[in-house]
AraC family transcriptional regulator
Amino acid sequence: MLQTSLAATYASYMLRLAESRGIEAEQLLAHTDLIASTLLQPQARIFAWQQAIIVHNLLKLTNDPSLAIEIGLRSNLTKAGFIGYGLMSCATLRDAIELGRRFLPTQVPFFKLRFDVENEMAVVTVEEAFPLWHFRTFAIENFLIEVSEIFRSLLVGQYTPGKYQQLQLYFDYPEPDYFAAYKDRLPKLYFNQAANQFRFSARMLDQPISTANPAMAQLVISQGESELARLGLTENWLDRVRALLECQAGQYPDLPSIAVQLHLSERTFKRKLAEQNLSFSELLETVMLRDAYALLQNSMLSIDEVSQRLGYQDRSNFTRAFKRWTGQTPSEYRTTLSA
């Protein structure tokens, strides 16, 4: 059932919006079997049916069909979790699109993305992974507007409001009345189209991203492959190894224990890692970074607690390791989450 789940981040954003409108968490989460604290847990996921009920409750309690737009406009790179940091670390928009397409299922299971270039336009087509029924319009509007905001974030300092209007959002249904109030804050909108799409000039595909960080991009890719494996969305051997490297009681499995779980000798296991140009220690570091990101995103945990859960008895050792991996201290990383 993990394949039909999504990151709880999206529900937590809706929870904060509901609270800003005077709606209690219990009202928003009615009939979902969820409690608010669950949504704040590291790597928390909820089922697609639970997200659908949250959307239904939110629309019913607010009587505001434009909420998909409001939520989309509040989106940023950090909302996308580890994918957001991967996008901003990519060298170009083309690379960012490929990374987003690859790892979207780890965050949102509702859509698949197809990328094409048509008549000098880059076209990202949004296709439903399964029927969305009564919340289809909400999901499509929210997703396309969120993508446009992330696009703008990637080119911050390079992209003027006028150029932002060169972006195009295509919808395959008639224009709802509530869009009129938002048109000055959105890209160009086209309704009654053949598909739901995000379009922009193909000349921008190789435009560099100012925050590019090749080392970070590779770490995020590694984390993404591990997450795909954890969710049962890949059959890659190396991803299965990453999924087995789970910290328990402050300790990660060692090479011999992983080899046993894979039904391999230690020598064969090392050889297979070498074929991937990896050592066990290098692989373990990428997994520890994956887990560090997830734990640091839980504001209820102190950095000392995060350090201990990752097997570091001394916080300073964790801080040095994290800065070596990312160029930031854990505290600096948390600051970016709240920006």
About this structure: The first helix runs from residue 9 to 20.
